[in-house]
Design goal:
Largest interface: A-B, 108 and 82 residues
CATH topology of chain B: Alpha-Beta Plaits
Helix content of chain C: 55-70%
Distance between the termini of chain B: 63 Å
CATH topology of one domain in chain C: Formate dehydrogenase/DMSO reductase fold
Number of domains of chain B: 1
Distance between the termini of chain C: 33 Å
Oligomer: heterotrimer
Shape of chain C: globular
CATH architecture of one domain in chain C: Up-down Bundle
Structural class of chain B: alpha+beta
CATH architecture of chain B: 2-Layer Sandwich
Order of helices and strands of chain B: HEHHEEHEEHEHEHHEHEEE
Number of strands of chain C: 0
Structural class of chain C: mainly alpha
Chain lengths: 741, 284, 467
Amino acid sequence: MSGIEINRRDFLKVMGWSGAGVALAACDMPSTVTLEEGKEEVTAYILPEEYVIPGIGVYYASTCQQCSAGCGIHGRVREGRVLKFEGNPDAKINYGKLCQMGQGGVQAHYNPDRITKPLVRKGGALVEASWDEALGLIKQHVGPESALSGDKFAWVTGTVSGHQAVLLQAHLEAMGSGNHFVHEVINNAVGQAVNSDMLGETQPTYRFDEARVIVSFGADFLGTWMSPVHFATQYAKFREAPRGILVQIEPKMTLTGANADLWLAVRPGTEGVLALGLANTLLVKHKRDASVLPAEVQEMIARYDLDTVQRITGVTGDRIVKVAGWLDSQSPSLVLAGGTAEGQEHGYETAAAVMLLNIILGNVGRTIVSSGDLPYAQMGPKSGNNQALLNFAETVEKGGLEAVFFYNTNPVYTAPSFLKLTDKLNSVPFKVAFAQFPDETAMRADVVLPIHSPYEDWGTHVAAYNGTQIGVQQPLMEPLNPTTHGFGDLLLEMLKLRKAETYGGFADYYAYLKQAISALPVELAQPARLHDAQWQQALQTGLIPVQRSARAISAKALAVNLPDYTQNGQYPYHLVPSPRLGLWDGRHANIPWLQEAPDQISKVVWDSWAEMHPATAQKLGVTQGDVVTITSDQGAVEAKVYIYKGIHPDAIAVPLGQGHEKEFSRYAKDRGVNPLKVLSPVRDAKTGELALYGTRVQIAKAGRHEKLVKMGGSEIQVGRKLVATVTADVFRRTEGGQDVA
Amino acid sequence: MSLKNILENWSHYRRGIEQGGHHKYEHMWGMALDLNKCIGCNACSVACYAENNLAVVGHDRFAKNQVMHWLRIERYWDEPDLDKVSDSTSQYQEHGASFLPMMCQQCNAATCEPVCPVAATYHTPDGLNAQVYNRCIGSRYCSNNCPYRLRYFNWFSFYESSWPAPLHLQLNPDLTVRDKGVMEKCTFCVQRIRVAKDKAKMENRKVVDGEFQTSCQQSCPTTAIVFGDMLDPESKVSTLWRTHQVELGKTKQAKQNRELRGYRVFEALNTEPKVMYMERVREV
Amino acid sequence: MQTKDINEQIKWAQINKDVLSSMENPRMAYWVAVAVCVAMIACAAAAVGYVYTTGQGVLDLYWPEMWGLFIATFIFWIGMSHSGTLLSAILHIVHADWRKPIYRFAEAMTTFSLMTAGLFPIIHLGRMWNLYWVLPYVSDRGIWPNFRSPLAWDCFAIFTYLTSSALFLFIGMIPDLAICRDNAKGWRKKLYTVLSLGWAGTDRQWRHFRKTYLLMACFLIPLAVSVHSIVSSDFAMSIMPGWHVTSFPPYFVAGALYSGCAAIITLFIILRYFFRFEEYMTIPILEKTCKLTFVIAMAWSYLNLIEFAATWYGHDAAAKEVLWDKFTGPFSPYFWAMLFFGSVLPFALAFEKLRRHLPTMFVVSLLLNVGMWLERWMIVSPTLSLSYHPFAWKVVWPSMVQWAVVFGSFGWFGLLFLVFVKVFPSVSMYEVKEMVYHRRRAHEEDQAKIFHRRTSDPQPAIDTPSA
């Protein structure tokens, strides 16, 4: 494998070329070693490389890999070490801003629990091995000699895009396999399905900054929905004078809900009914033009009068009228569906009902606009979902899979227990994990290849949302551990096993990438430059501008079929496994900063908890800190109760992210529970996506009381002027803008 | 020290905040924080951990409040009865939460400064409330006398527990890792101020507004945090203070328009905080 | 029933013999007491060692409660120190001669409780090895302590008070040390020879001695008042609700005298019992001490009420909240206990029957001091845990490490006291003789008046005090 090592001199040369570059010297030396001990390589300091100036921090552009939003980052590098991530101001996703998960990227990079040596399963246990041994095993099992081909082979990955996606696809083709399971717990698959059916485009662009009213059904766009930092930058504009109105409708308060002007608790799964109720009010009370809707849709909407909607959703009529009034008087508006609204058995129908509102209000083309097409379709993102996980489990169960490669995903942790994935995986004879951390999946693999952290690796990324630039991922420092390898390099190596004639010419992934990017059409670079300059510019800015071809967006109103709300006598409550901006789906549980950063809503740290409405708590006779057992038909989890009024009384929310196995990280060990495990096998009827929020549970007192560790004493202001609130009309009077009629 | 000197100093030191205080300022770094925009996402707080070598204390120590977050996001609910439902209170938090990012307010009449027995905390000519870690003996009086409770004490040596190798490679060499027994708090990223001032000095010019950002300001996705020099009348932060009619050096604020959103926390205590908050806005 | 403060017929030699014998031949009980004290100190020393090897966090102090029991106990011991000054200096000036048999140990108590108190601010420091930075020594860099800080004032005040009270104790002992010198052998002889500074009991020496003693007494009274006022300004000078109280200096001084007097009653009973000092530490003297304590208790209760009223009428919402929290919040059991021990229990001192019953007085005096210790805790902790900023409200029970140090401080005080009673006379021999002489004179004069004797009649033979 020495062939793919980037020669240090060459590397420096490249960095030097890249403009404000600095050489990455001496980073493999522990900084605590002193000259006196005679262990240090003195030359690095006495004869510094051209760009190494001790004490001066230099910034390199790269792309954040903490979630799949694809924010551009600048890594601050000093004395060869990357110290901090900051947003890349040129990046059109995050405009120089960065969320806490992005900030935590450095701790993922320097994580003390990273895998540094290849691991090979011997006698049932994973033991350290040499690269030669590990790669030899892979060659033996999936190399040309193995005769493995077709659907006996599979890749299971998280969202991939850019040249990695291209190479991955090439590898699958080389293997003759169509098995690529792209799995993300937090996804927008149902919404995208509705988008393509009703708008003719999978992922349109939303103009939060243009909207005067945003009504969001469970779409936590400030926290966990698609591209939160991007949406937050737009939200800031939305909140400037004249200041738009945000209404959030969901069973459990998300970060977006916490910032809403009006937060409405809705009975889980009835969001679609509420949307139709709003549509009804708009058509009947506000005499909105119904002609944009086909007759059968009009008929359907007519069935949802105020009384019906109140009865089903539990939202009072005056609130519905108020929201409808805002939607009618303020234009343009934007109505979104996501998260809890979509993750239901009838999630597709719900999202479609919400889209009808946009059609009635004429938002399509105004606040919902076309994103255009990416000129290089093969580089486009392969966005993950949970359906892939279900399909993977089915494929494994069917048998015949002989080798599976895992990358950037942890299905053993995220798979609900009804899938019995852990047991089923035993039937796959050869499993390879390309892993940075000893997570649950890696620990069950037969070969674990330790890969570079994203911040010492090469790559390109195209964001699923707002992918107007290709994000260049370049190393911010030399590899921390000399025994890890880049994912792209390994992928190339896998390809060389099968397609040496095409890929044999590339020394490593860096060479491939350089050639690929230099070969992009010159006119795309701004300003136009030579091909080679394009590569340099890409490294310098971390971004390659993309001209997405224009596309018209058109709306097609579809009739939806929503069920009435049904009680479940045995399991009366709805489980909301709520994602957190922080630990995300659990992948960041090994980052101490994010464990210690309190949950935005409950302010709990380092733990799992169960959010509960006081009415429910009274009924069950529990107080804050009491442990409850939450039982679904698939199992039970226990969590301490946090009581507040930001949740529907029929719902109980347990956050995602904790409950890891002890090998994963010292920081995630013995921390909380994983609510994904108890999910029921409920799928969205139309798309087949797992209904993440469709699980019904019963709650019982566990009879224990434990301290709920959270930040802060009082939850109310106790008469102090800490956060003062003014009404929007005062704001508009003093800071501009018209009053809402 | 001549008698004349002493007398001059004496009369100088006797000047109250309404007479401009007894400090001679080169800069006066201040902040304006818009709670209409703040979404409480925590990005600033974690960015502060990254920039300022803040220790992670872990679950058990967090349980005892032995925590080191220089910038904390406080969350308050509007509904007074959190764990009760009654007819008099509404059933839901219909207007969401109230978020309040709290970092050292860098008071011009700081209550922490006079009580330190060894003068480890003092006012710099930059208008910062500086904490000299080397001088601190850990009497913790400053923290006790801070009405905002924004000073954090190193109850332990966190070096090994918080940065096990190779996490320690992330530590910012521009500032220290504080050892046990020392008080610490938000510095308005004094290391960044230092760099910017040095650079301006080398180029023989003044520090330009927006030339550098504090770590929290930089990461804030909604640009809710504005930071700058309050002595520069053109700076964004000065403009905001002026627009919202909040003034330093006044024991009683003379707001012409009482509807303007600017206010400071615990203004009545006259500690002269240099962080102005702008009120949260809700439609109803 | 014993009504006289002291037996007027007691012989000088008897006094010498009684007091000197208390300094010799420690019995088994003494050694047991020493062992207990040493064990307590070891316990505290281990705790402090643990704190310094791990960190102050093991005390379960936290943000925002940064002080806790250490500072509370510090004020408690400072308070204790005021009793000696009260008895030896104030009562000396007002010629209350019943103080004479008991002031010596009270004065020793002053010095030792100061020596105990001073340890607390030192061990509570995060970096105690830098303690000397609080002192205004001349530094090359021209760095001075912050003279605006009440903690720096504390440092000066306590040092001054400690030196002065130790000096006062020593000066007052010189005539007695000479007696010891004359009666001692071996190392004690050498020690007392040095310490008695060549005292021969000459007229000239006595005149100088009296003047010095009076001067020191006058010097010490304002010092004692100022020390506790300065300690109170640690709190009163802050802006925290519940601390920022104008009446704190007199309140602290009253509390100090109160706990000091209560401690005198405790030690009085212990010394009387173990050293068989029934002749000197008589019931009438105990009664007088009890009455004094009762008066101070009432003054303290009054000042307490003033504090409540000032807060109540003061329109400072936060201060009201803290006060209300003391009555009803998490600290309320301790607050009510403090009010009971501090303001209700002292009424036991108002009844003659109870006052003359030693076991009762012993228990009552101990409980009074429990109340006073709680008072200090109730000053420090509620304000820190529950002040302006509601987000920082938090109450955590102090860890065993804190309690161990507090507990050990009593052992340290006890050990110092135990050493003192065996090395120095715990009853002032020369002053008891004076007292007996004056009482006898007064008695004879009364008798003379009763029998209408002429002044020219020969005086009855009276022993002259010998040194």
